[in-house]
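Name: Xaa-Pro aminopeptidase
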Amino acid sequence: MTETTSRPPYAGTRYPRLADIPAFTEWIGGGWADVQTRPDLPVGAAAASAAHRDRLSAALPGQTLVVAAGTAPIRNDDAAYGFRADSSFVWLTSCQVEDAVLVMWARDGGHDAVLYMPPPFRPGDAGFFSNALHGELWVGPSAGLPEWADALGVEVRPLADLGTATARLGGALTARSAVAVVPGAEASTELERTLSNLRMVKDAWEIGQLREAIDATVSGFGATVAEIPRAIAEGLGERWLQGTFDRHARTLGNGPGYSTIVGSGAHAPILHWVRCDGPVHDDALLLLDMGVEARSLYTADVTRTFPASGSFDATQREVHDLVEKAHRAGLAQIRPGTPYLDFHFAAMEVIATGLHDWGLLPVSVDEALSPQGQQHRRYLACGIGHHLGLDVHDCSQAHYEDYMGADLVPGVVMTVEPGLYFHAHDLTLPPELRGIGVRLEDDILVTETGSEVLSDALPIDAAGIELWVGERMAGR
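Structure predicted for Xaa-Pro aminopeptidase:
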């Protein structure tokens, strides 16, 4: 073998300029088998999205509408965050392709929907080997435009075609997700509000997806609780439990629907304790707020508070019992025709009364519950419920009168989640209450005759929780 001191011009792990070498591009472009890849869609997804587009078309006749999937932001250097498509785009398309854009072109009597997306970089394309984010050499075979068109039953065109059509988009209603792809566009409040309002009422397919997400979440609670003894004994802490659930969510769904909260002891009262970098204390409460996001991107959102030892002590149980009482009061208000906020007021009255009975309020219950009071909210500053769907806090672009000012109707899926958050450094509290945090959160469907607690496989009473925890810790 002849030795040489010459080196190839781009000798490293990155090859952005290999496309300039004809011999290489010719060689790497051929000799590949054709891998047939189809979109992996949940059963019924395409039909559900078509129905959603019909509802949007009827709500905004005569308006061209633009909604985009979005682009994953860069995490560091050339590494991107995992892509998660815009929720309204998914509601309308069931497509999760990065940079895809849906245009619903206005026509007499309705809309013509066209989905624009970047074709995959396949053998023979320079991007096949030079684009580390999307080239098939890097990320694997992907469904092409014809496969997407067949799977979704909608016209699909190359994203480049949208560039030649942008002149026709003047005056179009553009979603926030699509502002970057329509020159000079501003986010349309009318379109965002309409989409939020339409998404509030779930159809049968969406409810089925939420059931799957919630059932997977319940089993994830079991898997996580079973690891509590190990997390304590081996000093693995909160992060071990967080990782246990996240692995479960990634296995049974797309992943966690939001940052998993695992708070032990003094971390339990911290509302968004997602750092999860503390130990699990064997004598303290453990607050788990967790939800599996299905592959369709519909998510659960469930919270329970467990005694890490398996049993509540007297003070912990007293706090838990008050939260349970508030939770049941809120659940009792979920039914058709009831003002949305009734569950909030019912639960808050229970909380304020209990805190007053414990001598923790500086005013009467009536004064605390008045708009000018709210002193009880020191220990419950967050809201205690929200719509649930593709987003954990679903339909957030709806106006107040459409959301909180409306009556409940069948098909609404929402959470009820009262709690008490007694921070360890709160000097208004007696020492025995400091560092106790309790939240109960269930996912509820409004039915024709009342409501259904979709997450009721998890107990909410202290005795039931102790029994449930004990069985999981024992491996049953």
